[in-house]
Amino acid sequence: MSDPRDGLTARRGALRLMAHVLRDGRMLDDGASGLEGAEAARALRLAGTVLRHMGRADALLKQRMARQPAARTRDILRLATVELMVLDAAPHGVVHDAVALTRSSPKTAKQAGLVNAVLRGLADARAEWDALPPPALPPWLRKPLAKAWGRDRLEAIEAAHLVPAPLDLTPKPGVTVPGAELLPTGSLRLPRGQVSALPGYETGDWWVQDAAAAIPARLLGDVAGLRVLDLCAAPGGKTMQLAAAGARVTALDLSEARMRRLAENLERTRLTADLVTADALDWTPEAPFDAVLLDAPCTATGTIRRHPDLPHLREARDVEALTELQYKLIDRALGFVVPGGRLVFCTCSLLPVEGEHQVTAALGRHPGLVAEPPDPAALGLPPETGSAHGLRLLPDLWPERGHMDGFYMAVLRTRA
Ligand SMILES: C[S@@+](CC[C@H](N)C(=O)[O-])C[C@H]1O[C@@H](n2cnc3c(N)ncnc32)[C@H](O)[C@@H]1O
User: Is rRNA processing given among the entry's keywords (predicted)?
Assistant: First the structure.
């Protein structure tokens, strides 16, 4: 039988993670729940579920309180509400632990009675919960997405964000993993689980990479023997793909910490690349490359299903700074390509200003630059993902398979 304290431990860890995101403005993945192993995973899952459903939890709780309680008490109530309404947890344990957590801090102890009363009042709130509008993205993101993709598609994207992402692996050529589904795009898909326990982890036969994120490197086709620059490379998912496909790769990134992770990833997978830690806007290569892959920094809004913290952390003003950096990086990257060579530009964003618009603008700025139309069928993707200039992936794709991240990517060929 499981220890009844287990629930309390994971719930306390989830509260730490929620505070880390909601009050410290930091990313969920960087947060320390203070736990390890299965308890840490449970705390992360609880915090992520709260962040996905927080709008509805707040709407339900608002009806039941005259005033906002202390921030921590509010989080305790949000967690309990989501456990009751979304995760169908046993009410007795949820209410008991919520009250215990409220009592455990002098700052909130006085609100234990309120927490008990509010949560007991949720016993008959199921119909009210079901009648609430489904979780929606924040207005700064909803508005441009509705304009770009239409309201129906936006709602399908929002629904896809509620489905926890499966585990996707990119295998080295010829590698299979028992029990994994081979996706039409070549990735392997498994239910979520402990990565390091899977066969092939120690021997570096594969690496974790969303199916959508694995497409940009594949746009370059056969890269064996080519000199390829992976610009904005860390933690190295695309570097590993290019190196495994036989390219002579230079991997560059600004972040020392992320470059350390890239080096560890190359070591585990026994792959090699020349590593450069530098700002791409200042750095100049000794000789131009046959191809450059630019996975530019962006809002990462295509990864919300795996990062439910993002809508709580980003805001409209981030978009402007990022699009400015993206266009500078594109122009810089084009200068690193041999005449007649290729630049793959991609971002894991849902916003056309970080994808389609960047490519149209680059074509306008650089006479002689052409966009090569992609062939979705050859990549194992639905035909509607392709356009004259690039490939657009949105998270509502592949509903029967468990969806994929949002991405935009294009192949630009320089004048010969
Ligand atoms: C989307 S992530 C790259 C993910 C990586 N390509 C992969 O597949 O694993 C964007 C990266 O851009 C890097 N970056 C941001 N600004 C940069 C700059 N001016 N020069 C070089 N790298 C930069 C960030 O450190 C971050 O690692």
Answer: no
**Sequence ranges of the binding site for S-adenosyl-L-methionine:** 232-238, 253, 279, 295
Catalytic residue among 262, 348, 353, 369: 348
Ligand 1 lined by 341 (C-beta under 6 Å): no
Residue 159 vs residues 73, 149, 259, 352: alpha-carbon distances, Å: 29, 14, 34, 20
Residue nearest to atom 15 of ligand 1 (CA): 297
Average pLDDT over residues 269-283: 98
Domain ranges of the chain: 5-131, 208-413
Of the candidates 44, 47, 27, the one whose C-alpha atom is nearest the C-alpha of residue 35 is 44
- Summarize the confidence of residues 176-191 as an average pLDDT: 95
pLDDT band at 1 (very low <50, low <70, confident <90, very high): very low
Considering the chain, what percentage of its residues have pLDDT values greater than 90?
89
State which CATH number among 3.40.710.10, 3.40.190.10, 3.40.120.10, 3.40.50.150 fits the domain covering 208-413. 3.40.50.150
Residue 411 pLDDT: 98
Residue 270's region, left for phi above 0, alpha for psi from -120 to 50, else beta, is left
Please name the residue whose Cα sits nearest to atom 8 of ligand 1. Answer: 237
| Crossing angle (nearest 10°) for helices 316-334 and 356-365 | 40
Mutation probe of ligand 1 site: the residue of 253, 277, 405 with most atoms within 8 A of C-beta: 253
Residue 125 reports pLDDT greater than 90: yes
Centre of ligand 1 to C-alpha 236, Å, is 9
The helix (H) or strand (E) run that includes residue 338 is strand 337-347
**Which tens digit of pLDDT belongs to each residue from 284-296?**
999 999 999 999 9
pLDDT of residue 150: 98
348 in catalytic set: yes
Quick one: pLDDT at residue 41? 87
Rounded distance between C-alpha atoms, residue 231 and residue 333, angstroms: 8
Regarding the domain with residue range 5-131, which homologous superfamily does it belong to in the CATH classification? NusB-like (1.10.940.10)
Q: What is the ipTM of this complex?
A: 0.99
Mean pLDDT of 252-261: 97
Beta strands 274-277 and 248-253: pairing type? parallel
Peptide bond into 235 cis (omega under 30): yes
How confident is the model at residue 6, as a pLDDT?
62
Going by CA atoms, what residue is nearest to atom 17 of ligand 1?
A: 254
